[in-house]
Specification:
Structural class: alpha/beta
CATH architecture: Alpha-Beta Barrel
Strand order of the largest sheet: 1-2-3-4-5-6-7-10
Order of helices and strands: EHEHEHEHEHEHHEEEHHEH
Distance between the termini: 12 Å
Number of domains: 1
CATH topology: TIM Barrel
CATH superfamily: Divalent-metal-dependent TIM barrel enzymes
Number of strands: 10
Helix content: 40-55%
Largest sheet: 8 strands, parallel, barrel
Number of helices: 10
Length: 263
């Protein structure tokens, strides 16, 4: 299934927006695009929602016919247990996370121990934890961790764009992670020359116009056959004004949905 994310509305829910979108607003925008899945990813306010607010959010999502996923950061058991509680209230069955946070960068051995302590609760709840490919952790190390823990409810959130910053070839990341993928973040990217030709900038691009070999990802991972959801994100650089940036963000959402639906 194709979904949108809070990252697809990054500028529109930021404090820079003239009228920042709420989660409810983003859900309604998602539904109007004919999309039936929304990932609440790295959206810190939801950790402070009351039980009543969470129930209200789930009711809205149910009324709109939009399923929910969650995205957070870190592998500390107390945090992942809290996120699991949110997942159960919201009817979420996939939680994306990553090993590192600003405050905590576990070794692989530490991460394995932490994950082993919390995954039985995820297994009992029927919730899958998907660890994202990121430049801070080589994909081979992430795969080794998944294999070591060997839980049916632990997988990978594949985002080949992130690993480029660690000089990993996107195809290599796709090949290595494919057997363990439980979620996909779809965004295209490109290198552009900086002013004065003093280096390059790695930034987002509309799907199909950058360096992501999406056809290869489809062929290798086979998300439709395996029931793996694909969540649209952006690396959209700011334009001349916040209004221009928001307009472009909406354009990217529409064009990226059209691109994925055409495949």
């Amino acid at each position: 299934m194709i979904g949108l994310s809070t990252y697809a509305f990054f500028w529109q829910h930021s404090s820079l927006a003239p009228a920042p979108l709420s989660l409810a607003d983003m859900l309604r925008r998602t539904s109007r695009q004919g999309v039936e899945l929304f990932q609440i990813c790295d959206y810190a306010p939801i950790l402070t929602y009351s039980a009543a607010e969470l129930r209200e959010l789930r009711t809205l999502a149910d009324d709109l016919g939009v399923g929910l996923e969650l995205g957070s950061r870190g592998v500390l058991p107390d945090h992942l247990t809290s996120v699991l509680g949110l997942a159960e209230t919201l009817g979420v069955t996939t939680v994306r996370s990553m090993l590192n946070t600003v405050e905590h960068q576990p070794t692989l051995a530490e991460a394995e121990s932490l994950l082993r302590s919390v995954l039985p609760a995820y297994e009992a709840a029927g919730v899958t934890l998907a660890l994202e490919t990121y430049e801070q952790v080589q994909s081979r190390d992430l795969v080794a961790l998944i294999e070591a823990v060997a839980s049916p409810n632990l997988g990978i959130c594949l985002d080949p764009a992130n690993s480029v910053a660690a000089l990993e070839n996107p195809r290599d990341v796709i090949d290595r992670c494919a057997p363990y993928v439980a979620n996909i973040h779809v965004k295209d990217f490109a290198f552009t020359r900086r002013g004065g030709w003093v280096g390059f900038t790695l930034e987002g691009a509309p799907l199909g116009t950058g360096l992501l070999d999406y056809d290869y990802l489809l062929e290798t991972v086979k998300p439709a056959e395996r029931g793996i959801n694909q969540i649209i994100e952006h690396w959209l650089p700011p334009g001349e004004s916040i209004d221009e940036t928001i307009d472009l963000e909406n354009t990217w959402n529409s064009s990226n949905l059209q691109y994925l639906r055409s495949k």
